[in-house]
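Narrative summary of target 7.
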Amino acid sequence: MTMTSVHALREAQPNVTLVQRLVAAGLISEHQLRRAMQERKRSERPLGEILVEFGMISEKVLNETLAQLLGSDAIDLHTLLPDTRALAMVPREAAEQYCVLPVEFDERGRLVTLAVTETLDLAGVDAISRMIDSDIEIATVAATRADIRGAIARLYDVALTIPDILREIDNDTADALQADCDGVACDHPLNRLLDAIITEAVRRDAAAIHFEPEYGFVRVRFRVDGLLSQVMALHPSHWPGLAARLAAMFGLSEGTRDLCSDGSVAVSLGSRRKRLHASRRATLQGDDFVVGIVAADREAMSLDELGLDNAALQRLQMMMARPHGMIVVAGPPGCGRTTTLYSMLNYRCDESVSIVTLEERPSCAMPAIRQAEKPQRQECEEQDHIEALMRQDFDVLMMDELRDDQDVSIALQAASRGRQVYATVPAKSALHALSRLDEFGLQRSQIASNVVGFIGQRLLRKLCVHCRQAYTPQPYERKLMRSDDSEVLRFYREGGCEHCHYSGYAGRVGIFEVVQVDETIDEQLACGATVPEMRRAISAAGIGDLADAALRQVLAGVTSLAEASRVVDFAVRLE
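Modeled conformation, tokenized:
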């Protein structure tokens, strides 16, 4: 999100007013402006508010024009998750007087973001600056006066932290909460509780929130850096209302209670825009909800940013330079396979290449790439779908996962007709992806002639640099490294501090194995070699596996041996 610093705002107060810009762009006429000016003189209300009320312009267009005037992005305050730390910096009286709303505080960057209108003058800028600590920078995003006023009324002078909201709920009677359960009031404590839980999950960079009713309590867990951890336990009396709020928020109807149903919404925590995907499933203890969290404005990484070593990166680029054939990315769900596919598409994307995708749910919008969801099986016959797809004159096809024989058939026919195909399969290593293709009924000769390479990958949690602890490895740890006693080694283990929420880890790093289908693999395929036999042949050629990649990260101090052992099987290296 583009933001304007308060210094830039102070130095560059616009010479052109918002209304002048609207007229110049042809968004309102001179006649409409005169009519709005008359109403402004009569009511002494902001002109933008009058233009929207009279239907002369939409609120969205007004907000976008305001953002252009201020040199920053517009923000949708209707989907804003409250940041209590930011709100505490500006008293309600000042927020109302200057029509500003604190929307986000970035503690690491020491930056607070304010939503402002075009009427914020120098006096307002200076007054707000004096209220905030001198070591904190101020940035601005644009919003309409009506939206800011509504958000101030909704977010100030009510409990917004989880403990405070729970105390408020406990003070209310269960009957009162249940009676209002079907309402949609934004300031209802159950709404605020749900917002507070989602806000905390976004702040911790959680990938998912699990709401799990048990006998006697409701467990709430966040998935952070690939692992679930319990963050709170709610009283069971809170769950019926909260479950109803979740269902209403994601548009889940009562008619689908016995099925696994899902829905999605967009939210923002200041500059962080997120897309939430909720799934509800009936269990013996009650309805489970899982809320996945992804960046709404996610951008594809470059190949260099993935973290492949130079040799693996060169092999991947050689595979992608082939005129046709499949590249299969292997790993369990949640290991970053789709991120790798998007990076590969980003590498190939230019005006001379036509790229199409078939995805369960596109998670990254990419310009110049024709993205589509996979059709329902009953909507079209397999061969009809294949022929329709082939008529699209594409060069590259991306399929996020080969789930069944039909997916494999589409990928195989595209590769055999001179296209490149990038796809994923759930398998534990690059070579085990070959076994998965066997299970789908592909002959070894088909694999040899249509697959150009396999990628295996995992994600390891990175040690927190603020609290990691150095130690000298034990003999069995040296054995994993195939190191003798004379070599000086230093490993690191997790500590725990406020920077990592006392987990010892912060963020994740990818590890990869890239296997190119060359003469060595062709020979192994022709003689029906097993996965271990092929692994030995590849190792003899100097190509490492996931274990080698993981141990390099351990030796570099990026992760711990305990974390590497959790993700990668080192049993063979201990034999």
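Confidence is low (pLDDT under 50) at residues 8-16.
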